[in-house]
Amino acid sequence: MAEQKQRVSADNLRNFIAGAFEAVAVPGADAKVIAELMTQADVNGSEGHGVFRLPQYIRRIKGGAVNVKPNIRIEREMAGMALIHGDNGMGHLVMKFAAEKAIEKAKTAGVAWVGARWSNHAGPAALYANMPLAHDMIGMYMAVGSANHLPPWGGLDMLLSTNPLAVAVPAGDEPSIVLDMATTVAAYGKVKTKAQRGEMMPEGWMMDRKGNPLTDPKRANEGFLLPIGGYKGYGLALVLGLLAGNLNGAAMGKDVVDFNNDDTSETNTGHAIVAINIEAFQDLKEFKQGMDTLIRDIRNSQRLPGVDRIRLPGEGTHTTRADNEKNGIPMPPALLAALDTLAGELKIAKLAR
Amino acid sequence: MAEQKQRVSADNLRNFIAGAFEAVAVPGADAKVIAELMTQADVNGSEGHGVFRLPQYIRRIKGGAVNVKPNIRIEREMAGMALIHGDNGMGHLVMKFAAEKAIEKAKTAGVAWVGARWSNHAGPAALYANMPLAHDMIGMYMAVGSANHLPPWGGLDMLLSTNPLAVAVPAGDEPSIVLDMATTVAAYGKVKTKAQRGEMMPEGWMMDRKGNPLTDPKRANEGFLLPIGGYKGYGLALVLGLLAGNLNGAAMGKDVVDFNNDDTSETNTGHAIVAINIEAFQDLKEFKQGMDTLIRDIRNSQRLPGVDRIRLPGEGTHTTRADNEKNGIPMPPALLAALDTLAGELKIAKLAR
């Protein structure tokens, strides 16, 4: 059932995305930043968080839900923290600003925690957790998801999102370790993909309102996602939401707007990014050597029968990125068709391929 | 199969624990601090992490594995961080020192991250995450567990521990939210309890070396614990270990000493505590009102059939604490017998009850 995908170069994708944002009055420099980050998401294989979201982003800008000329600014600041007011700008712009601020502050404070409110969906969590890596820092990112799909444990009302956590840690000769996880067993995008392909879901992804396993993805709206580890995943989704949402004065619980089904409302999305300056804690070279040793110990450890390789978090992404940078990003026909339609609406050139 | 438990007052327990540590040359003031924290663990219902550990702690002190007169000190410091050298002292002393330092620094930096190395097992994670609460701060605690029970996903070699995470967030009129979770489906202590009671474990707790479910707790040493959410829990255990271990120059992976089966080796245990000053981010009163609203929205939300109550993380602990403070801490006969034996060995008075 594999779809016939076409490979598109990162350059072509970047130009197309920037052009689309410029067509809805996003200033050129900002359009470039958003296009670069969205393209990185696709290059890294985060299919559900890259250009796939473009029609929705453009629709929300056209609907007045997102501010195309935000005054993104520091609202509060101390030595080890800052709170960013996103002025309802695109989340990519807000979180790039926040990550840069965290990195700058961690140079002198050792560790800096930067929260953001009045932001919007910013793409995959790892994009921002990765930013401190180039400065020999560890990055940690948390967000309130942009739609509630998760009830509290034992409940029916979807008061929580799949609130993600990403942590990126640099190594020496080995690739960095990058964990990027939703707090549900499956992300909602995976359910949509199963539905599109006419496949059933395994038990454990979703539950119906009577507490029975829900395996038909076409009935997804009759149930809800399940958290990892039962009540533990519920607790994790909740506290990530408190740290990225409540602490910043951003939306949580009932206040979260489902941005998939709303083109006019501000979301007041909250995120947080932490930059940890490794040299504040220990010698950088020793740290990296220790990381390399640990990574090799894990990779070369004994395997369960039938397992071909022990993977480190982020390993799949590193492989995908190398492939996509060389051969282009694989794009399914349905997505290409949607982007062609968008190009027509915006009166811009179609995505070159 | 419920054991006949005897209730012991917190005061009696505290005195007994302090006396035991003094009997092995721990200075009186330090013995009091450790006794207070261990008693809090029992009052909170963390049965596997309170006085249950006392015989083991004393054995390791007698074996020379733990330094009874440590010079716990700040090794490195910047505005938003510190690294504590525990000098191989009891983990409780090291992490109380670290948490107080984090709280002090967060007053001026807004957020402070304090790591520790050359520490030891410190009891339940929530003890330290809770410390910032009294200062209207959020607390976050991570640790490298003191024994490896978890292989990397797809692997057989137990290179990881059940590395715990605790996050404590204050509310207004409602009790604080306190998440305290291991990254495995079940903690190893639960397996031991099942074995003691002659009960089988549910599928999903453990796996044998062929990849089959292991449900007989008496065969626990033929397999290993399973992480929450499969590879996600593996990733979470790993990055928590990187943050609490590698970053601080503490033991991780192959270097972790199983302190259950070793009375002579230093463990170089690593932990991290983060204190987040809520007022740095927003008005404290508004934050607490928002927390109360969210907590009530969750508690009063619709329930699955058969569910009597939607719980918030930490709710069970709050209930247990109130009960134990009033009626004493329930202690199983086997534990009381072990403590009596210990009292005989140390030539101190038995635990009063």
Secondary-structure blueprint:
The structure is a homodimer of 353-residue chains.
Chain A: E1 6-8, H1 10-23, H2 28-43, H3 54-62, E2 73-78, E3 81-85, H4 91-109, E4 111-119, H5 126-129, E5 137-143, E6 148-150, E7 160-161, E8 165-169, E9 177-181, H6 188-197, E10 206-208, E11 213-214, E12 223-225, H7 231-244, E13 269-277, H8 278-281, H9 284-299, H10 315-327, E14 329-331, H11 333-346
Parallel strand pairs in A: 3-4
Antiparallel strand pairs in A: 1-14, 2-3, 4-13, 5-8, 5-13, 6-7, 8-9, 10-11, 10-12
Summarize the structure.
The structure is a homodimer of 353-residue chains. With 353 residues, the first copy, chain A, is α+β, with helices and mostly antiparallel strands. Helix content of chain A is 38%, strand content 18%.
Give the key terms:
7-stranded mixed β-sheet; 353 residues; 11 helices; 3-stranded antiparallel β-sheet; alpha+beta; homodimer; Ribosomal Protein S8, Chain: A, domain 1
